[in-house]
Amino acid sequence: MSNKPTLNTAISPALLHLYDLSNSVVVIIDVFRATSTIASALYNGAKCVIPVDSVPKAIDISKNIGGIAAGERDGMIAEGLQHGNSPLEYTREFIENKTLVLTTTNGTRLLQMALDRNADMIISGSFPNLSAVCDFLLAEKKNVVLGCAGWKDRFNLEDTLFAGAVINRLTKEFTVHCDSSLMAETMYTKYKNKLIEFAPKLTHYHRLVERFGLIEDIKFCLTPDVANVLPVYSNGMLISK
Amino acid sequence: MSNKPTLNTAISPALLHLYDLSNSVVVIIDVFRATSTIASALYNGAKCVIPVDSVPKAIDISKNIGGIAAGERDGMIAEGLQHGNSPLEYTREFIENKTLVLTTTNGTRLLQMALDRNADMIISGSFPNLSAVCDFLLAEKKNVVLGCAGWKDRFNLEDTLFAGAVINRLTKEFTVHCDSSLMAETMYTKYKNKLIEFAPKLTHYHRLVERFGLIEDIKFCLTPDVANVLPVYSNGMLISK
Asked: Which residues numbered 179-198 in A keep a CB inside 8 Å of some CB on B?
């Protein structure tokens, strides 16, 4: 048997229970847009991002600590909030030295599931911080579970493509032996040079672009290393390590 | 909106609940090997196949009706049974005019789930009966859910590749708008001319070939139309329509 650490891919939150998280670094992946937005905010100097599961909680916590309450439901800025889940909203001018309290449809829920299942460590990833995620996992040499947030438990391709991008860089240093990972890397290899051109085929693209006109968000979320920080979850918040 | 029927792909039994089955034809897909074996037995003249969820039930029913009790657990002939889940076991000489009572790890369970969720109609498919499945769905013009049996709720590629083969033939006549189906068809298109060469990369291949030497089973299960019947589920049994 190989002594390499293992890498597995959970292509939906509904499949996360199949993997042992207690000995693993879990990478939360919600490309459109939670984990892209987290990378963007931290890259632009946010003190931290506090992920919460409800709008009232986001409002309460942000009031208490003087932070920015933000989030979306079904792709739109959530009712009662002034700020949404667009990575482009969190410029350095706006977010530097502030705390972002964020609630989203899928990413926040998956993070809570990873906590409930006693993940050894939780980080978040998307194309904007691809290299930071890969460099960290290569250095850490622990087992990895790539957790795709999907859309209300449905499989989505953008999260799987990011998983494939990570696998593509890590495959020689890890034991990768699951069909999900093989599929993810195959899909990524096929589309890696035309991710933005491929995007209109994705169901999530239609929600974001046709309904809300968020094409610039899409481009940001699919561009490697434009916000290359490593968000690490600890004591209820994501901080840049 | 299009008036075409919809087609969705459930890439794991754990995701089946996301789809409305009550207005759909559900295709049970367990390429290695339950639905290949069902096609083989019916093609070779079995009166019917009765899928059951336990070995004792298989033995009881087969005794009562004078049928053949068969099945596997974790890839091997199940304890207490004389016949397994190999499509090559069910030659015409052996199975013609007999009833096969079959219990398997994943396929039988998925079929039961589809029943519990009130599927409008249930058929079974694998590469050996690819054309029969596609021709039926094209003629029927109802909504379709392709149900991949996977391996103990894990995604597997062979079932998804078969889903992709079906989508590839049906896509113009159906509304196909889910990332699972897009992924399945993309993977199928990439490997359709080298399915058997690709097979050694699949986790299930290792179970079946390296542990049990079942390479001929694998080849049969991946060859289109070598047992081209349409198994339709009705009153507790699959019969060839």
From this structure: 179-180, 182-183, 186-187, 190
